[in-house]
Amino acid sequence: MEKGYSHSRASEHRSRRNRRRLMLVAILLFVVGCITFITIKVSDSKSPAQTQELAQKTDSVAHDPSKVQANADSKGKAAISKDETDVEDGAFVEKYLNQQMLGQLPDGANGKKVAYLSFDDGPSVTVTPQILDILNKQKVKATFFIVGKEANENEHTRNIVKRIVKEGHAIGNHTYSHNYKYLYPHRKVNVDRVMQDIERDNQVLKSILGPDFSTRMIRFPGGHMTWKRRDPQGMAALDKVLLQKDYHQVDWNVLNKDAEGKPKKAAALVNQFIKSVKGREKAVILMHDTYGKEETAKALPQIIEYLKKQGYEFKIMK
Ligand SMILES: [Zn+2]
User: Class of the 47-317 domain?
Assistant: First the structure.
């Protein structure tokens, strides 16, 4: 009996001790919860640069950019909201460049430095993968103006196009053929041929990226400004068709001259770029990722680091 009594006292003592332990654990959990809550609140009020970096990280992991692009296309400009930090409305860039070219103060001039890296004439199996590796390492996104003929060359080039989208970059249309003589015979803009070539490029891209893919971004081989100067009437007719189809053409206002004059070494490309970007608040930067442009890839890390140091943020165009 006494033994039993002392046994029950001992168990009562034990259960009291257990209750105390439970209380302690509950208090501990509450404290940890409070600390976590405070930490989240503080990280919400991070600097814009940190938020930007975070957005870029989540961008490359959390969703399929080709779907975002398709959504934005079907719902119009307002749909571009989630990626607002690093996606620019192509119509904005188009208008900005047009106003700048006319010597006007562009509507979007607001003191914020933005760099739009763009690569034309690819993909190539030699240079494009190098450029993608560098962009990954530097955690910045770019816009690739794809030539359909190059994209459809073989399984490797098609996979590179998929990789571009998967890694969060944007794709623009640079026509299927990129053939000046065909698109601009006798230095005149052939509206029907240009539009057919743009649609053919789209078909190639859809066959690689899926039927949901679409892009509003166009860059003319040789540049819109060149052909507007040579054939103002032809270009005006083409502009009308583009407008109807909600296409937006963008040229550039900065270049590294990797497709002009004699081939240059990386250091010369960086120098050309630094001269060209001077004073540009919104910098639409033209580079090339086609065959033979290895020096462009070599120059790219320095170009990106220069832009970062100068306080530019990076955006893609859609
Ligand atoms: Zn080109």
Answer: alpha beta
Distance 81 CA to ligand 1 centre (A): 30
Active site residue 120: yes
- Cα distances (angstroms) measured from residue 124 to each of 168, 213, 217, 313: 18, 21, 20, 27
Ligand 1 centroid, distance to 3 Cα (angstroms): 96
Per-residue pLDDT of the chain (318 residues; tens, 9 = 90+): 444 445 555 556 666 667 777 676 565 656 555 455 544 443 333 333 333 333 333 333 333 334 344 444 444 444 444 455 699 999 999 999 999 999 999 999 999 999 999 999 999 999 999 999 999 999 999 999 999 999 999 999 999 999 999 999 999 999 999 999 999 999 999 999 999 999 999 999 999 999 999 999 999 999 999 999 999 999 999 999 999 999 999 999 999 999 999 999 999 999 999 999 999 999 999 999 999 999 999 999 999 999 999 999 999 999
- The one-letter code for the residue type at 78 is A
Alpha-carbon gap, residue 63 to 281, rounded angstroms: 30
Which tokens go with 154? 């073989």
Q: Give the integer Cα–Cα distance in Å for 97 and 116.
A: 12
* 145 beta partners: 120, 172
Residue 286 CA, ligand 1 centroid: distance in Å: 10
Catalytic residue, chosen from 59, 83, 89, 120, is: 120
What distance in Å separates the CA atoms of residue 43 and residue 203, rounded to the nearest whole number? 44
> Who surrounds ion ligand 1 at CB < 5 A?
120-121, 221
Calculate how far, in angstroms, residue 6's C-alpha sits from the geometric centre of ligand 1.
93
Domain ranges of the chain: 1-45, 47-317
Residue whose C-alpha is closest to residue 144's, from 238, 232, 208, 97 = 208
